[in-house]
Amino acid sequence: MQKKKVRLLALLLTVVMLLGLLPGTALAANDEITVYVSFEGYTIGYGFFIEPVAMTLPAGTNGEEATRELLTQAGYTYNYTSGEWGFFLSRIFGFAVGDANPPEFILAEVTANEGETDWGGTLAFDPTGSADGSLGAGDFFGLAGWMVTVNHEMLATSVDAHILENGDVLRWQFSLLGGDDLGAPGGWQPPFYNQADKTALIRSLFYGGTTEAAQQAALDVIIDPLATVQAVNTAFIALGGFTDVAFGRWYYGYVRFVAENGLMQGMGTGTGLFSPNTNLSRGMLVTILWRHVDEPEAAGENTFTDVQAGRWYTEAITWANENEIVEGYGNNRFGPNDDVTREQFATILQRFAVYLGIDAAGGSFAADFTDVNAVSAWALDAMQWANTSGIIDGRTPTTLVPRGNATRAESAAMLERFIVDVVEA
Predict the structure, then answer these.
(1) CA-to-CA distance for 96 and 384, rounded, in angstroms?
(2) Domain span at residue 37?
(3) Residue closest to 86 by CA, chosen among 178, 15, 176
(4) How many beta carbons lie within 10 A of that of residue 334, not counting itself?
(5) Contact, 183 vs 150, CB < 8 A?
């Protein structure tokens, strides 16, 4: 009896969840956030009532405001209450719900609870849908109603009290068991099964550049309550996501930019790994710049003895050399597999800017770095240009580390800054 009262209380308290990795920088009051919202009915045998939607909202928007905005935009009416327990979404009209057909494992738990008493009387399962096609509290079972998770977790707070963060995934799911059948951690009772976290998968639907078939396959996985972590990761990778680039890491947006624009790919086919902390090679950097200008054919022949014919970087290096973007080490060597240093990166990028017709004159450093004497003479002008242009920051507030190797995450950041702030400015 007490257990059932706690579950019914869970219905009255709309709950939210908070992702463990959040962006480290707070948004200003006049900034916008993007959140992803959906309405789902898999617990009663239905899919999406509203597929995941990317909503751009003012910073400071709470979960109730995002919910009401989406339902209004989609043309649905709804009943709700607000008061001591906060915003409670009691019923939605227009979803055209028929009879319930829960998955077997949920139906088994519902059946096991039949006959018990609760505040609403004796619990009994009735699969008949409402006469007006609406869906809300008490339909099919006394503990049923709309529940909400944010980033796959539930908290004991009302949704109107939860301020959304950029990238939050807010999922309204119809529950037969007061939230216990949603598989999300942090609920009022341990879930009856463990549903894989699909937060990153929902975000990846909006990366862009993926096929309609991959998007539909991802939607099928999202709505599958028994989808395994492996199935979620497979769908995530198919949408262009990287399993080692967590939302909220400083390089997340940069990696997304270079991936969406076809500049950088994962490490190894089908692995789903970006390897952000792996060093970028000289051959990789030249190939990225070559891709940016639509992979032009080289007019001449490769002259570097350590650049073999037919390799993935051969055409790019040959083109870059004949356009004076790269010169090599001397003695006809280029070192395509060598790690590119930060000062080499700046130099190659400066020459590429000149190739594009951009004024890339040096200047002075934007800060008093203590290791400017470590910059090689041939790279000084390029490092000054890259730093004053905002492309290359210090590794710390006081050090440039010019001869340190550039990681793939750092490279993604420098490439986005170069393209957005220099090329497209």
Answers:
(1) 63
(2) 2-195
(3) 15
(4) 24
(5) no
